[in-house]
Structures are given as structure tokens and as C-alpha cells.
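With this grant's support, we have settled on a layout for protein records. An illustrative entry appears below exactly as we store it:
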Amino acid sequence: WRIQRRHGFDLIFIIKRMTRGNLRRSAALLQKVRGLGESNVATGSAKLFDMSKSSAAFNRQLSTLSSQFSSHSSFLTRFEKCSAFPSVSAVRYVSLEALKPSDVFEPRHNSSNDEDIADMVKVAGFSSLDALIDATVPQAIRRRDGMPMGKYTEPFTEQAFLKYFKTMASKNVLRKNVIGMGYYGTYLPTVILRNVLENPGWYTQYTPYQAEISQGRLESLLNFQTMICDLTGLPVSNASLLDEATAAAEAMGMCLSLSRGKKPRFLISASCHPQTIAVCQTRADGLGMTVEVLPDSEIANRLSKDVGGVLVQYPATDGSISDYSALVAAAHGVGAKVCAATDLLALTMLKPPGEWGADIAVGSAQRFGVPMGYGGPHAGFLACCDDHKRLMPGRVIGVSQDATGKPALRMAMQTREQHIRRDKATSNICTAQALLANIAALYAVYHGPEGLLRIATRVHGLASVFAAGVVGKLGGGVGGAGAGEGPFFTLASSSPFFDTVTVSIVAGKGKGGKTLDADAVVAAALEKGFNIRKVSDTQVGVSFDETSELADVDLLLQAFYQAAYTGNAGSSSSAPTFPPSASTWAEDSTVAALETLPANFTRQSKFLEHRVFNSYHCEHEMLRYLKRLENRDLSLCHSMIPLGSCTMKLNATTEMIPITWPEFADMHPFCPVDQAAGFQQLFHDLAQQLCAVTGFDAVSFQPNSGAAGEYAGLMAIRAYHAANGEAHRNVCIIPVSAHGTNPASAAMA
């Protein structure tokens, strides 16, 4: 309490703690103030602020005031009146809580208020929520520590969260990423961004078990399957998987199932993306399979009757395009299946895998409008021959008829799935990435076949201009090697390419007399604002995408030039002149030669001929199509969906906003770690929170699937037993009531 003669008041009392001592001291001060009476109080010249959070506590102390203020009876009369009628200005109750920001999260998103809870508890026969919990939750498992989370223990308001998260995001350093490896920059059309990705009418629907309330989403997923089938040249596709690497692992598992477990060897091309190889190796351990990673040239020689399948990358991770038709014939000769990990945008120009004999095609739809997001989530895909469809993992959408005979869509071939076959299911894959599959499908709907081909042609053209610059403007060659102080750069392969060019670096003295190697070129590119791929100590890779521009080619060639020749050109007669702008030579014959794909690699078949891919290429028509699909679905925008599942949630709008911020959305998963400090903080802090919630010591973040988490946990238990010399402990007990994916995950582990 204190007296202040300012702000136009003669007397102000601020009481932070409502105690008898504070009131006595307040009364003593009042008695020292002359001229305080009814008129002062009535006009608001005396103000009393109770900041003790409880007006009831104040009222309980009125007797103390009465005994102390006997000489101020007129004031007390007025004061007691003010206590009963708070509208009188002389007395105001002010809580510290009232001075805090009001945009708190909990009352906005937990719809039950105190009165609702009290009513429900009363109906259940208890006097309070605490009494209900005491009667239902065993004391032995009750948590008593309040679940401390350090700086996150006190909740954020929504605006404070956005401000805090924006600061975290700003720690991520955005560079132009030309790393490739299956992750590419892309432009998500704003009509899809606003009306699908940011629309809870699309991102809150439940798994479409009830077809009658899911026709819009089912149509979009059917579009996805049609897109995959058309581009891969295979007749059957699923409605998405988790990502490319896990899709490849699923294809490997299919090969084992197709041989009824009799062909446990699986051969993988060393030209596959390294993350794909790593996931297959991990998955093979649980399946009892043996993975062998081999150069393309050696695969055919290692084929035998116990090989279940072969995995190749088309185009390869280094960008090269190979003719696998001879390998397919050799594999089929020993009863092995051929799986192709491929790129959807490349397949608008390249002969599709189904046409050169592949049995299964897998990949990612990420570059069809889905941001990189530092690695995910993205929609993977798997397409296969018709004979193999019963062993294909994931959802499949099929065309059927409703009760009146009209065409209708539903999930098909569900007898393969976990909720029916349990441990004998084809896979533990459940709902996968339906939202992102929808976005990729709608990207194809909006651009159409001609639009996709334009994007692909432009991307391939930029890669060709860059390759021509390495050959013609930096004094390099194709598939050869320089000597001495130059030329320093050559194309690593004479094979055709689509969007990725791998450059070999010839040893020599580079900038400042330092040894020129891949690290030096990577550093020079970084100075120009680019992240390029370090393939090896003597090779780097550059991948172009939808967001690339001709000016990027100029900057990249300048980076290569400066790494090799700046500070060295004066002493080297072989140093070329500084490369001129690509716009002055992009139409040269050297570029045209590199840009022309050989006839045996060029796509001749048409794709995406269905009406849906050729109708909605202007924004207002696309908007109306999206709204028609949305209106055929039931989502959490319309009502609660009383099915009960781990997926039943309505994410708060504030939680969803950061996913489209460039600092999060446009980060490449293989960019330098020091550029991703915001993501590293996010991972660290989230791990600490989850440790506090679960009581465990550490957390591993798995792909966006509970089934993937189950599998990872079981594999950790398996590895623990093996490390303790008890690898024979391979029995997993699962309750009959367990989620459908549990038995399937256990079978895989």
C-alpha cells in the first residue's frame, strides 16, 4: 500500500495481499489524511485497488475497517456501499491476472469452462473434479510434480507464442538450395495454399472409413493415384506412403512377400539416394533380409535364385540416367522383381519405369507443391503391376456404386490392412500422408500435363545451361580430366541427365594457392548464397528445380570460377576469362546438345489425359473445384466425429501458422547444420518437453506416423536384447485390444 498524490486522485490505496495487518496500516494512514469524507469518496478522489485476486477476502475484513475507522463513519458507509455495489467508482477490485494478456490458449481450445465441468462432475456424482480423479485414477500412478518443463512450464498466450516462434524461426538461415537428393524447391499455388493446406475443412477429416461423408477427399486421392499411375506407367498405385525412403523399404518387403519369404537377398544400386539405402538396410534387419549395395555395373553379376528384388534410382542420385532394360531382363530371368525409385517431374520427359519393365515404382511427390520443410512430411508413393496389388501397402481408393447405382468412391481391398489382418497385414502403414498427397494431386490438376511439362523442360534447360558452362566457360570437359593448374572441372559422367549435374574437380591449386577440392567449391558457392551438394572429396552436385532462375546459373559458375582461378589466374596461362552472363550463350549449340535427351530415354506416351487434369487451370475454376470437393466431406469444421482415434484433433490455427513460414518450409534437410539453428532448438526443446511428459530420458523423432514410432520402439527393444546377448528373446506379447498397427509393427521388427 502507498499514498500517491498524482493522476488526479487525492488518495490511492493498492493492496497486494489482503491481510488484517495491511488493513490496519491502511486505516492508520486514512486517519492521518485530513479532509477525507463523503464528498471525496463520492467523486472518486479516493480509490482503493484490491490486487489480492479475491473480493471475498476483502469483504471478510470489513469488520477490521469498521473498528479502525470510527472517526470516518461517513467514509465507511460509502465504502461498505461500494463493496456491495462495485459499479460505484470509489472502490475497484483489480486482479493481477486481469493485467496479463488476454489471448490465452486454454479457454479458446478447451471448450469446457468451470461451470460446464462442475455440472458434469455433479451428474457423475462427485463434488469436484479432484474428487472424481481421486475415485478413478489409482494413487500409485498419479502424477504429483506438476510436470515442470523449465521455460515452457508457464503457458504462452497465442501472440506470445507466435512472437517466440518467429524468433526461433529467424535462427534458421535461408540459402538457395541446389543440393537435390530427392528434395527440391517448389511453388505451392496460392489457391491451394489458402484453400487446402491452410483450410481445416481439408486438414481435419478422419480416415475415410465412412465413404458417404468422404467423397470429396476420396476423389482427390483417386486423382493422386491416377497421376502416379500415368507418370510411372504402372496400372495400380496406392494413395500415398510416408516418404520415398520408407516407400522403397515397403517395396523391398513386397519383394520378400511375393517370394513367400524364400528370396531374402535384396540388391540396391549404389546410385540410389543415401537415405533410401540406409532405411532399407535398417528395415531388412527386422525382416530377416540381406541387403547388398552394388554399382550398377555389378548388379547383374550378383543375381541368383535367392535374390528377391533389385532397387535402382531413375534418375540416379548423381543425376545420370541409365538404361535398365537389360538389368530387368536379367533379374526377371532368376525370378527377381525390379523396383525403381523415381522422380515424378522427370517422368514427364523420361520413359516411365513401367514401359522399360520395372515391377514396382516408388518415390516422393514433394516437388509437386509440397515445401521441403527440413525433410518432411511429404507424400511418398508406390505403384506396381496388377498381379502384385494384393501385397501393396497403404490405402487404395476404388470406384464403386452407391445404393442407387450411381458412381461412388470408397477404400478398396481393405482385407490387406492392419485392422483386419493384424499381424498378417501387408504392412504397418496406415493413413500415411493424405493431406500432402491431396496437395500434390491438386498441383497436377492445376498445372495439367502441359504445365508440368513446361516446368520440367525449364528445369532441364537450366541444368543443361549450367553443364554447358562447366564445359565451355570454365575450360572443362565431359567425363575427362584436366591437369596441372587447369582446367579444374569436368562433368562426372557422359550420361544424359534431367535436373542434376555432378561435377568432378581435378586436383590443383585453387584460390589463394590452396588445394582445390569439393570443400573449396562448396565454400565458394556458399559465399554466393547457395548450398550445393558435396558428393565426395572430388565431386560436387548441383540440382535445379522449379524455383531456379537463369541468374542462379551465373552465380554458380562464378562461384566455381572463383574457387579455382581467383588469386591464381595471373600465374596460369590456362585460366579462362570470367564467365559471361548465361543469357548471352544459353541458346548455343553446346547447350542444345546437352539438352537433347537420347530417343531411348524420351517419353513418347501421353499422361494425365483425364478431364480433371485438363479443366481447372485458372484460379476461379480451381477455387470452385476445391470448394465442391470440400463440401462433400465431413470434417471437424462441421461436427465432432465420434470414432475415437489417435488422429482425432483440431489443431489450433495459431499452431498451424508457422508451417508455411519460409524459415521452416524452405529448409533443405541436408543443408549445413549451422544454418538450421532454429530447427535444432525446436528439436532440443521438444525433446525436453516430451521427456518431461513421458518420464523417459531421451526421445527419438520418427516420421509422421504412430506406426513408425511403434516400429522404432520395437527395434530399440530388439537391439537392447541383442546388445545384452539375448537376441533369442524375439516374442512380442500384444493385447487383443491393441491398435491394428501394433501386430503388424511387431511382425516387421
